[in-house]
Write a sequence for this structure.
């Protein structure tokens, strides 16, 4: 077994546990770990990109951070990012416009290099909308990008929720990479007649 591994999860657990202990929520830890374990199981049952993203979107919705969310995945043929999932078509139009603006501003490329949420503001300075970009990546392999518009009201334990967001998206990226490997493996096998 390899002694070295490339994982950000220990840091997320450390920061999440520190925040939970500061909030006095130690009794909620078993429920949190159970939810993460169910998330992994639910992802493992999926065999398509759409299935993986649907499960991810459902769990991210449980964080109660966002009013709109979307996932962009990398097209392996031309390496462009394509909108793959949103709640509905209207959200897709809005989010695609936002992502196009973030690409022009350079924040999309910056977010691709980060393992954490990258925040941005939209609209007028007196009452801006806030949004988040977060890469779907493992090690140096980028599988996609998440974009979400934050709710106006602040979610309880927001810092913990953002750590959990990073954890959920990291697990999702791993599932997407596994799905891509499985698909490539199936395509490379000669058919037996």
């Amino acid at each position: 077994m390899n002694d070295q591994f490339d994982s950000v999860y220990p840091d997320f657990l450390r920061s999440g546990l520190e925040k939970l202990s500061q909030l006095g929520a130690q009794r909620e830890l078993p429920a949190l770990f159970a939810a993460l374990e169910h998330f992994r199981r639910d992802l493992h049952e999926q065999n398509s990109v759409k299935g993986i993203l649907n499960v991810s979107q459902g769990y991210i919705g449980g964080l109660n951070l966002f009013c709109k969310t979307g996932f962009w995945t990398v097209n392996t043929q031309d390496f462009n990012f394509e909108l793959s999932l949103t709640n509905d078509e209207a959200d897709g139009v809005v989010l695609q416009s936002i992502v196009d603006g973030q690409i022009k501003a350079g924040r999309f490329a910056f977010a691709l290099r980060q393992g954490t949420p990258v925040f941005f503001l939209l609209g007028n300075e007196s009452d801006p909308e806030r949004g988040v970009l977060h890469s779907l990546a493992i090690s140096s392999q980028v599988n996609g990008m998440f974009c979400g518009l934050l709710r106006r009201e602040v979610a309880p334990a927001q810092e913990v929720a953002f750590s959990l967001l990073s954890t959920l998206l990291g697990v999702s990226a791993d599932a997407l990479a596994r799905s891509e490997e499985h698909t490539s493996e199936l395509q490379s096998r000669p058919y037996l007649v």
